[in-house]
């Protein structure tokens, strides 16, 4: 956990009534790199067809682009790819597959919220 996340966790623990105002500002490139390190690299591609291997091939550019979009508040979530996996009873279960970029942002937000 980084110093910023430690500070947020400390504030949340010591001031239980505190309401955090600008957590969005914490979603910077270093947080996105940390999130990338925790992703499952074997996961399926989303609707854009980009695999984790393709994303990793251009990792600095992709992370920089995500950080810029988040900073300028222009980041928009991609559509979710819907696939159906078979169940034991013969029916199918719907499964949503986000794009790799969305997974990185989601993981970053998850780490931020877990520190609180």
TrEMBL record:
Quote the InterPro entries the UniProt record gives.
DNA/RNA_pol_sf (IPR043502), GrpII_Intron_Splice-Mob/Def (IPR051083)
As for family, the record states: Belongs to the bacterial reverse transcriptase family.
**Descriptive protein name:** Reverse transcriptase (RNA-dependent DNA polymerase)
């Amino acid at each position: 956990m980084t110093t910023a996340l430690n500070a947020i966790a400390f504030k949340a623990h010591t001031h239980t009534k505190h309401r955090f105002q600008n957590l969005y500002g914490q979603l910077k490139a270093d947080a996105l790199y940390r999130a990338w390190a925790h992703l499952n690299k074997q996961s399926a591609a989303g609707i854009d067809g980009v695999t984790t291997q393709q994303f990793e091939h251009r990792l600095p550019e992709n992370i920089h682009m995500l950080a810029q979009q988040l900073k300028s508040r222009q980041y928009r979530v991609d559509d979710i790819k819907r696939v159906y996996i078979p169940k034991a009873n013969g029916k199918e279960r719907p499964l949503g597959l986000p794009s790799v970029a969305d997974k990185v942002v989601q993981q970053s937000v998850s780490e931020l919220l877990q520190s609180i």
